[in-house]
Specification:
The chain is an all-alpha fold. Helix content is 79%, strand content 0%. It is rod-shaped, with a radius of gyration of 27 Å. The N and C termini lie far apart (65 Å).
């Protein structure tokens, strides 16, 4: 085989090989982007579910803190025990879509709400437990936003 024949064969096979390489790389990258898109859609759904529970609970706490007669109780606002159940169920359903920091923050909040429910049998004269719980809810919401790269 002389150089001319080698160049002929290269001219025939190089487009085929480059087409195969481009096809494989495109397939791999498109599958990866589809997986990331599906994960992000589910992560957004998980965030919305947990965020709604936390915001409703925070409204309930604010009603207790400010004792304002003009703050109407939302029909969706839940007390601590209902919130604990809803948040725990949402965490179990969506923990796969949350990163480690978000999962730990929500689990810590579930633990704090649990202790809060136990200590709620005593009537609090001051509002410090309510305020600290509202601040903790805000911190968890900020961590969830950070997980979604929205803040």
């Amino acid at each position: 085989m002389n150089n001319l024949e080698i160049f002929k064969w290269l001219a025939i096979f190089s487009p085929i090989v480059s087409g195969i390489i481009v096809g494989v790389v495109t397939h791999i990258l498109s599958n990866r982007s589809k997986r990331i898109e599906i994960l992000y859609q589910n992560k957004t759904r998980a965030f919305n579910e947990i965020h709604k529970i936390l915001i409703d609970y925070r409204f309930e706490l604010e009603q207790i803190i400010y004792k304002n007669p003009f703050l109407e109780r939302s029909s969706e606002a839940k007390d601590s025990v209902e919130t604990l159940t809803l948040l725990n169920n949402a965490l179990v359903r969506n923990s796969i879509y949350l990163n480690k920091q978000s999962r730990e923050a929500v689990m810590d909040l579930v633990t704090k709400i649990n202790f809060y429910c136990i200590s709620q049998t005593q009537d609090f004269e001051n509002i410090n437990p309510y305020i600290s719980m509202a601040v903790e809810i805000k911190n968890v919401i900020d961590i969830l936003y950070k997980d979604l790269n929205l803040k």
